[in-house]
Known about the structure:
With 215 residues, the protein is of the alpha/beta class. The protein has eight helices and seven strands; from the N terminus they run αβαβααβαβαβαβαβ. Strands 1, 2, 3, 6 and 7 form a five-stranded parallel β-sheet that branches. A two-stranded parallel sheet has the order 4-5.
Amino acid sequence: xxxxxxxxxxxxxxxxxxxxxxxxxxxxxxxxxxxxxxxxxxxxxxxxxxxxxxxxxxxxxxxxxxxxxxxxxxxxxxxxxxxxxxxxxxxxxxxxxxxxxxxxxxxxxxxxxxxxxxxxxxxxxxxxxxxxxxxxxxxxxxxxxxxxxxxxxxxxxxxxxxxxxxxxxxxxxxxxxxxxxxxxxxxxxxxxxxxxxxxxxxxxxxxxxxxxxxx
Length: 215
């Protein structure tokens, strides 16, 4: 990792959770796996099976309209002990929409999760990680954590299966790291077992964000 990347990672670790959750305050050997853009009827069930085989929990940042289309799958995520977070209702770039649309994306997204039996939402991830002061305030007014990530070396669009896994294996994990993945990414079901074997082999627990000590 270059000096610039190390500096950015250090800054994110010092960002207070009340501003944005790039990293969970944690001293234990825990990392927090997250998946965006689902639920996906093809890949999410495969991911659930892999997580169960590895005794791992994750957080799924779901899109409201996809939740409404697949309520049983959303409920299954909750029943399996995973955390469900909101990723908006239709996945717009929030700084580019009106204030009325912003409020609607937050409220309809959470309502869809509630209607599907996904439980109380405490975490929100903005689409594409794009946010500003207006979006932060809208999230905090709803008593949600604006949740980002600290590790994206496994994420889509960053090369082949082998290249992604090699980058991840060379990265030094820190307690409380939040790992970004997408359950709409075709390579994830193949990549995930090897990644989990690597994480668990180094003595880390893989957790959902509800397992953090956040108030």
